[in-house]
Write a structure and sequence with these properties.
single chain; elongated
Length: 141
């Protein structure tokens, strides 16, 4: 795994969590619409009650999955931040944190750091090379 791939794990996991949260919201809306239309004690059709119960179980399972994913994300960010902080160049540290932990665009990073876009991209390449060495030393690859 390259340094860039290693760092991109944060965004992938973040996107996965966001997708699951969106799905959870839709499932909750579905469960509410079903329960508002049919009150459980008035439902005579056992099949409908079972479907509602199944949906609630799926919601609870998805909530647990999301919680586990958030725990993994927090742990991953902690490990990656510890590794990034081992870089010698402070600008490299700032670029990698802004790009991979805070998900900022190159333009945002350039403006915040008061550097040209091209200079930020160039420094990013050097930062990745330096980070790659740290990964190899730490055996994280």
């Amino acid at each position: 795994m390259t340094a860039k791939q290693y760092l991109k794990q944060i965004r992938k996991l973040d996107n996965l969590i966001a997708t699951k949260l969106e799905l959870l919201e839709k499932m909750r809306a579905m469960s509410t619409s079903v329960s508002q239309t049919f009150e459980p004690n008035k439902i005579k059709n056992k099949k409908l009650r079972n479907k509602t119960e199944d949906l609630i179980i799926k919601i609870v399972d998805l909530e647990r999955e999301i919680t586990d994913d958030i725990d993994r994300l927090v742990d991953l960010k902690r490990v990656i931040l510890q590794l990034i902080k081992k870089l010698e160049n402070k600008d490299h540290i700032r670029i990698l944190i802004k790009r991979y932990v805070l998900h900022k665009t190159w333009e945002q990073i350039a403006v915040e750091m008061k550097y040209s876009f091209r200079h930020v991209i160039r420094m990013h390449g050097h930062a990745l090379q330096e980070f790659e060495k740290i990964l190899r030393e730490e055996g994280e690859e």
